[in-house]
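Table 4 source record.
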Amino acid sequence: MAYAASIDRLLDTLRARAREKADALAREKRVVRHGLLSVGLKLHCLAEAELFDALIEALGGESSVLERNVYKCAAARFCLVLPPVGSAETAILLLECIEQYTGCRIFDNPSIQLQVCSPGRLAPRNAALHAIGFYLGSDTLREYVLDDFATTVSEDYYHRGKRIVIYDAGPFGDFDCAFPWWARTPAGLAIRPTLPFLSGRTDVLVGSGSRLDIHNINLLATLLVHAQSSDGDGYWSELGTTFIADMAALLDRHLLGGVVDAPWICPHDQGARRESAGKDPVFFSALQELTAYAMDEASRLARRRLAIPGGILNEMQNLLADYRSLVTSTSEREHGDAA
């Protein structure tokens, strides 16, 4: 993807109105915590576009910042593509810098639709678990319509369809692989200087998003990418495989195991994805089934004003919290990664 600016250029610009946060971001921009994956972000601006005028102009104007990127949500005025950073915490700090610079609220703002980008193309089933885990683990219960996922690449050459989770544009976009990868060797942890793939992302079209959404998507992507890593090379491969089994069991307990089999993502192969793009209603039917189940539980929660034992929302949030704790405690014990 064509970034709006390099991270250094972006930070130099943001310092004019958010110096303290930008300086902190400069120190952390490529630091990876607990072996989690790097994080990329796209901001789809549906309204309040004028608040970004000064930032776009300072970065070189629309022709340099926006027009090189043909991709955006269909309803958006523009899409601002941010360079990737090393962690969810740093990604959140970057968005806070932009909030301070522009005066536009980024989090939980219906005018700003977030897209969270993770390195590595997830297999279709793992992509489904990625989207479902994000949805059930969020602190916002959303109701989507299919056109919320319409983009400028839904039907053209890329045939990405109208999906909540999508792949990158292949060889036509930039990919920054210069982030550490935690690998497992017979001797234990080996931290390699670059990611083990030269291209390929899996993105979630969040909509109006929160800080927790970014953390959850980052954790989910890490566990799922490591689980499917070649020969179990990923340090979190075993933990990721266990997570997949636990999440599948959670969905089965609630009679939702079948939703994983829907086409949550269009295949990367060009011929197959053209056919799959016509299956948007099949995907959306599965999302609606999941949404209806979650909404019904939320309604019962509101009436009782307490957590429902065994409720799917509570179970998913606890599952993510448990695995986050496992990742954090293990990395602290084995790597001294206490930050």
